[in-house]
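Deliverable D4.2, example record:
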Amino acid sequence: MTAAHHFFSYFPQFHPDPINDRAWGLGFTDWDLIRALPEPQRQAFTPARGYYDPSEPEYLRSLCAQLQELPLPNAGLMVYHYHFDGVAALSGFERQLLAQPAQALPFFLCWANETWTKRWVGKPGEVLVEQQHKVQPELVQDHARYLAQFFDLPHYHRVGGRPLFMIYNAQASTTLPQVLAMYRQAFAELGHNPLIGACIAYPHPPEQLRPYDFGCEFEPRFFFNSKSSSALAQSAARLKMSFPRLFEWLGAQRDRMRQRVGSRTFAYQDYLAALADGSLEQALRASTASLPLMRSTFLSWDNVPRYGTRSTSVAHEGVQADALRALGSLRSDQGLPILINSWNEWSEGAALEPGARDHRLRQAFLQALPGPQLAPEPAAELACLARQAL
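Output generated by the structure prediction step:
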């Protein structure tokens, strides 16, 4: 057996949450966005197993079985974790990971650490819950204790013996670097020294990654955003860091303008070409500088359930299975795994979970991914053995 090398990003937005209840109506989940689509379009955004609630205890066992059927050895999940200055949200699935440790699913957490607004319906001024990254030791310590419960699980993914922990928005606030230092101290007091990485969703100045241990390519966002000029992208990154609310407002104005123009489409062929000629990695290295780089990849994207006429999609015209060989060149640095977007982000049209109507390249994509480059790790071995014993 090998240590988990492929991790699918996992989206927990499919069970009700009090914050969504207040914003969108009682019982709202992202399944409501899928149900609103007309047939037969809806089939492309629907899992083969039908709509499910990931907070239900029986769900985790069936998910483990699904992952075991993939042509990838011991695949795991990068689970989005929502926490806003002491306010937890969408924690039903992660709590099942704690409640059922015998399932031993390889995973790690990514803190989705930015303010929730109604921007995706063109209303960025309507805040659902704000993320300020308050410089308050008691908030940090409480949250660190909660996270340490996951780090303590034998099947939580480690690199070089250190728990892997991701930050979604590296420039979420001007206080984030100071708060991260507080987290490192709180983790140390709990006996942990996690590897903390930042998602790279667009080219930005490398100094913005100084508080982190590594950078993680975040696809397909980086591919989309790298189509802009490097100077423009870096200016946008500085604006987001210094004036996050202004950045959100300007983004909303851009979205409104796009609504008049219509949707936009990127060619998957262009992504494969940028992967094959090294230009994508070169752009990433310019942002990470000397930090290790964790690579990621994707197959599809079509967020029409969320954005309607302002949607962004990826077109696969002309792409045949043999062109996916370019994916075999993906390599992460220093024992870091490869991230795959995504397992179940159905409302963004990115899901690789078996669907009611699978993408025509799904199986070829999974088979084209590079094999494990790592030696077995004890924690992952224990996870595999525990699953086999069930």
